[in-house]
Structures are given as C-alpha cells and as structure tokens.
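During the no-cost extension, the postdoctoral fellow (Dr. R.K.) reprocessed legacy sequence entries with the updated structure-token encoder. One reprocessed record is reproduced below for audit purposes.
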Amino acid sequence: MATLIPKKNLSLIVHLLGWIMLCVVLLLLSPLSWKMGEVQLPTQFWAKQIFLVAVLITIFYSNSSILVPRILLKGKNYLYLLVILVGAVLFYGLVVYFEQFIGYGRAMHETFNPEKVFDPKKRWLPGDVFQLLLYVISVGLSTSVALVQKWQTDETLRQEMDRQRINTELSYLKAQINPHFFFNTLNNIYALTNLDVSKAQEALLKLSRMMRYVLYENQKNETLLSKEIRFIEDYIELMKMRLSSKVKLNIQIEEPKENLIIAPMLLLPFLENCFKHGVSSQHESEILIKVEVMGDTLFFETRNHIFPVNPDSPEAHENGIGLTNTQRRLNLIYPQKHRLKFGKDDAKQEYWVNLTINLA
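Re-encoded structure tokens follow.
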C-alpha cells in the first residue's frame, strides 16, 4: 500500500478514516441505538454533534501541531498539563454556551420528557462526563500521534546520520588499508630486486593487476566474491616469489558462486599477517590459507607459525593497523552476520584466524 500511495496522501487517508471511525463510534453509535422509530431527534441534537466534531478536530490538531511541539517537547511538562486543564474548562464552557445558544437543552427535554417542566439550570451529568471524555480522548490521541511522529522523525534522522557516519568511517578505513597493503607489497618487490630481476618484473606485473582491482573495486562498497578470491590468489602468488623452500604453503581455496558479493579487500590483512609473522629464513614453517563457501556463508581460515619480525624491517614498526581496521569494517558492514575468532596456540607456536561471514 505504501509503495502505491505517496506518503503524504497515505497520511491524509489515515487521518480521514480515523475521524470517520471516531464520529461513527462516539457520536452516532449511541443515538442510533435509541428507538429511532418512536423518537424524532431534534435539529439541535445534530447541530451539537457537528459542533463537537469541529471542536474536537480543532483541539486534536492544535494540540499535536502547537502545544506538543512548543510546550511538551520543550520540557515544560507542568505548563503543558496546566494548558490542558484550562483547555478542558474552556471546552466545557464552550459546549454549555453553544447548547444555550441553540436551545439544545429545551429541545432534548421536550423530545424525551414532554410531560415534565423544563429546568434550564439542571444538566444531565452523564452527558457532561461523556463530552469531557471526548476531550480527553482527543487530547490523548493527538499527543500520542505527535510523539510518534517526533520519534519517527528523530529515528529517520538518526539512521541517516548513522549511514553517513558509517560511509565516512568505511572510506577512512579503506584509505588506511590501501597504503598499508602497498607498503608491504612494494617492500617485497624491493627485496626481490636484489635477488632476481626477472622475478621482480613478474611481481610488478602482478602488482599492476592487483592495483587495478584496488583502484576500481575498492572504491565500491561491495564486489563479487570471485573477484576478491582472484585478488587473494594473485597476492599469494606474489608472496611465493620471495619465499624460500623452508616455507610450505597449504592453499585450499574453493571457487565461489558468481552471485555472492563481499566488501573488497576484507581478507587481505589476515593474509598479510600470515606472511609477516609466519615466514623464517632459518626454520621450517607452514602457512595454511583456506577459503570455503557453503551456500551463502563464507568460511575463511588461516594458520601460521609465529616468528619474530626482523627489527631492521619496516614491518617491525607497523602498529597492526590492518587487523584493527578489518575488525572495525566487519562490525560496520556485517553486524550480527559474522563471527571472527583468532588467537595463539602456544603448544604448536601457531597463530590462527577463523572468520565466518553470512553474505546473504
């Protein structure tokens, strides 16, 4: 319904239907239950009913548009209560004056009690109570509607601010990840130039392909998981060029479905951590990288031995910004849809990461 009718028109229809229902239930239900065939209601009765509807509508919108925003929502609760009480007195006085003006009391008395003498000073107490209840209901409903509209407006504004904050923060985090990644990669290529020029050239070609991915895909909020996997495979191939025979790579990467999407460069910091801490030129080591897709769920796992970083290496001065930013990105992009666990296995001297993401 909301997709077919504009929001303003829908609100107008709801208000109209609400007033029609209120008029039928509160103003017509009782008189229609009387013996209409035996009693002919005077014109004054219907004039008063129309007058009550007009006054209640005025009270409803005056309260919701003026009193609630300018008094109640400003924190002036006691003043608002005083205004409502004064309004009740004025409403009652206005109804009494209108009844006297049109001769409502005499007309109703002659209709239902023609055999008795009319006393203009005597009023029907249940009728007065009923009218005051109408006033209370009108004020209560209008206050509730105004407060709900205020809450909806505040909630919409809060969601928009959260969305802008998240987009800004994600852009900032991705801007931090890019230099971090290229710093490590260029450092690897620099090391290769002293060992094998042909391998360094091949590494530069792979890096250029990876740069295209970073420049085009990383500017988006999401990319195909298949592209992210190819990026990871290129990165691993690049890392292989600087590894010695002492490092054993156990790569288990499953080809994902084409329709799954993921935030770009989300898994890279975990891979960087493997090659940063899990490689030694003197000791045997093994790095496990596993990517598995089951339905819409991505399972990512890494394991690597823990070796101290060369203090002369630029990597030794990094502050772990990649992993920190990745945790933050996961919390922002996949709230309640991911599970990240990591830690050290002291017995095996290994560092492990298990990440599960629901990509639905």
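Residues 174-358 form a domain with the Heat Shock Protein 90 fold (CATH 3.30.565.10). Residues 1-7 have pLDDT under 50 and may be disordered. The remaining legacy entries will be reprocessed before the final report is submitted.
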